[in-house]
């Protein structure tokens, strides 16, 4: 774990889930929650549970939804010193209902919630000053005040000799905004590891096919491209070659957060010095376990849990 903890910057939310699938929220529904959530929070929780050192720069409200998140992250070993409490704003929320076709309907309160109140606080600067790795999610690029903090983190951690990973994790439509596109390109150009899922590969590198997109990204200076393929597993591409993993066979209960658990496990393994092939195997197992648990962060696993699963599970 060269130079210090892996850190992330981004949204913390609670998720509240409809018990039964259906369309939308237009009548009273049975709901279960709050579950700790937010893609960066899930990622960093999984990374910490693997035994890698971890921290997060984020903001929550002065309310129980904030406390739920801070407690979970702290219990799992994440440095929560740079989670700000924004007393004027409620903690961000996402209400989620699975549709009969497996898609999801959402009601979000993110942009106007405490999740948007990321500022260059003293605690944020201190955490950045001792970090050895930065992980960003595309969603963080949409948080207005967070951008200067992100730039400061990229510069500081890079100048200490640290590394940088990026999970685009965005809807393609966001790239229509010039501001977003500029930030996205700036982040992409500096990433060492890229973790796209499915078509996000082509948002990062417009191309006619997968090999062409991969070549473009390697030429940009990205050394590991970790492509998540849902129930079809995952592939890592490097200059030296490719590594493929077929998915572990599991029953999918709630796919939300699988990509974040996968990413947290992958980066944790790399930080802990494991080779790509092994990191991919752990990550693939972490993603598989994540889809079997209801609630986005509930499927984050310890290294022991992953090893037990990997020893027993069959491949699809
Ligand atoms: P998210 O919705 O969290 O953003 P994502 O789209 O980033 O997810 P996915 O490709 O859906 O990421 O899942 C990440 C990884 O989790 C996959 O590459 C795979 O290793 C594992 N995984 C996902 N779904 C399944 C499944 N149904 N069965 C087994 N493994 C799965
Ligand atoms: Mg994703």
From TrEMBL:
Molecular function terms in GO for this entry?
A: ATP binding; kinase activity
Q: Which InterPro entries match?
A: Carboh/pur_kinase_PfkB_CS (IPR002173), PfkB_Carbo_kinase (IPR050306), PfkB_dom (IPR011611), Ribokinase-like (IPR029056)
Carbohydrate kinase PfkB domain span: 44-301
One Pfam family matching this protein: PfkB
Alphabetic keyword roster: ATP-binding, Kinase, Nucleotide-binding, Transferase
Q: Record's family?
A: Belongs to the carbohydrate kinase PfkB family.
Q: What is this protein called?
A: Sugar kinase
Give the originating organism. Answer: Rhizobium setariae
């Amino acid at each position: 774990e060269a130079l210090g903890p892996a850190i992330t910057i981004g949204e913390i939310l609670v998720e509240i889930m409809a018990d039964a699938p259906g369309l939308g929220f237009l009548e009273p529904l049975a709901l279960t929650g709050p579950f700790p959530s937010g893609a960066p929070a899930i990622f960093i929780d999984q990374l910490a549970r693997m035994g890698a050192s971890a921290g997060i720069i984020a903001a929550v409200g002065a309310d129980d939804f904030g406390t739920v998140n801070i407690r979970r992250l702290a219990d799992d070993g994440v440095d929560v010193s740079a989670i700000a409490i924004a007393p004027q704003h409620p903690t961000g929320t996402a209400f989620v209902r699975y549709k009969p076709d497996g898609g999801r309907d959402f009601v979000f309160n993110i942009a106007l919630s405490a999740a948007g109140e990321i500022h260059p606080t003293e605690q944020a600067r201190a955490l950045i000053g001792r970090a050895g790795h930065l992980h960003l999610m595309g969603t963080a690029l949409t948080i207005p005040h967070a951008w200067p903090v992100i730039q400061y983190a990229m510069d500081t951690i890079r100048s200490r000799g640290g590394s940088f990973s990026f999970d685009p994790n965005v809807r393609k439509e966001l790239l229509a905004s010039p501001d977003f596109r500029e930030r996205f390109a700036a982040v992409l150009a500096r990433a060492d590891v890229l973790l796209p899922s499915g078509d996000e590969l082509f948002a990062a590198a417009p191309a006619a096919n997968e090999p062409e997109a991969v070549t473009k990204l390697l030429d940009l200076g990205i050394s590991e491209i970790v492509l998540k393929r849902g129930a079809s597993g995952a592939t890592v591409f490097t200059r030296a070659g490719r590594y493929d993993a077929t998915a572990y066979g599991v029953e999918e209960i709630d796919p939300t957060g699988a990509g974040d658990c996968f990413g947290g496990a992958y980066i944790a393994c790399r930080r802990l010095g494991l080779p790509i092939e092994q990191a991919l195997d752990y990550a693939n197992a972490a993603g598989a376990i994540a889809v079997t648990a209801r609630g986005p962060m509930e499927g984050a696993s310890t290294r022991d849990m992953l090893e037990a699963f990997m020893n027993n599970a069959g491949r699809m």
